[in-house]
Write a structure and sequence with these properties.
Strand content: 5-15%
Number of strands: 10
Low-confidence stretches: 1-14, 325-329
Mean pLDDT: 93
Shape: globular
Largest sheet: 10 strands, parallel
Order of helices and strands: HHEHEHEHEHHEEHEHEHEHE
Bound molecules: S-adenosylmethionine, 6-(5-methyl-2-OXO-imidazolidin-4-yl)-hexanoic acid, iron/sulfur cluster
Helix content: 25-40%
Radius of gyration: 18 Å
Length: about 325
Amino acid sequence: MSTATLTTSAPQTATRWTLDAAQAVYDLPLNDLLFQAQAVHRQHHVANTVQISTLLSIKTGKCPENCSYCPQSAHFDTGLKTEPLMAVDEVLKAAQQAKAAGASRFCMGAAWRGPNATDLESVCEMVKGVKAMGLEACVTLGLLEAPQAEQLKEAGLDFYNHNLDTSEAHYSKIISTRTFDDRLKTLDHVQAAGLKTCCGGIVGMGETVADRLHMLVTLANMAQPPESVPINQLIPIPGTPLEGVEPVDPIAFVKTIAMARILMPDSVVRLSAGRETMSDELQALCFMAGANSIFYGETLLTAANPVPEKDLALFQRLGLRSTTSMEAY
Ligand code: SAM
Ligand code: DTB
Ligand code: SF4
């Protein structure tokens, strides 16, 4: 299949993409690509503002899935300290701190194939508490059935994070315990329940440029493209099958961000995992390419992220401001 399915129902914009069309834009000289991405960005978003989300791992490790990139898979020995599902009040304490630090969204991640009924009830309590603080709530719990998505919606959830992670063709080289189709089904349930989707992927897992573009084209051609598109750079985790993979060329990474911006003009594009090892200059290029969200706080789920002070200094140097107040820091 050289193009993703074209859909006509409820499009977010009139734009629909083929792989060839995306490749032609990708192949433009870098300055032309960045210029186009920045132009699209300014037509659809407020320039120089960045939305900030803070992550918390509410259940850590011992995951039955075998995602080759993940420190939390029970299939690999990564030396990770595992933790059962956190108590609701502990999670809400962390949410309060994230709010005080200036986050506008609190994202809770659990290392499950999918939640069971008891765990989902606890997560719904967490969502209600986070919403009561005036924060947006996002969770990422693995595969969901339709009634589970509806239950989360009723609890007040705003976003469900569920990444495609890579192209359909590359997917089975990275994960064998579930299929690309399983992921799409969960996204359908999430959207049918009226939740917003946060869905993107990882760059740097040995995939080709065509794989990256194919993933983005698949997202852009969804009846409703994801409202939020996280682009992660692989954090190579010792003990995982991908620990020694060739690092991605930083310019190719910037070009991937620019393509996400051009293919999904209305979506918020999040410069996600991997910022810890990125220079300020590389991050600046990513913002120029149309990234307008980050994860904020010194830990992602289990891996390191820049400390808040470093991000605030970067924002100041680049003249960026958060879409919420960061005065608390
Ligand atoms: N278990 C749920 C799932 O897989 O959907 C939620 C948690 S999972 C850790 C969320 C996302 O984190 C993955 O889809 C992947 O994009 C990202 N991720 C995990 N490990 C990563 C790594 N080493 N480098 C970059 N991104 C990573
Ligand atoms: C996403 O795309 N990236 C975040 C969030 N969604 C859940 C997670 C990144 C995880 C990086 C590895 C870790 O912290 O364990
Ligand atoms: Fe489990 Fe999610 Fe990690 Fe895959 S990415 S091993 S599903 S926590």
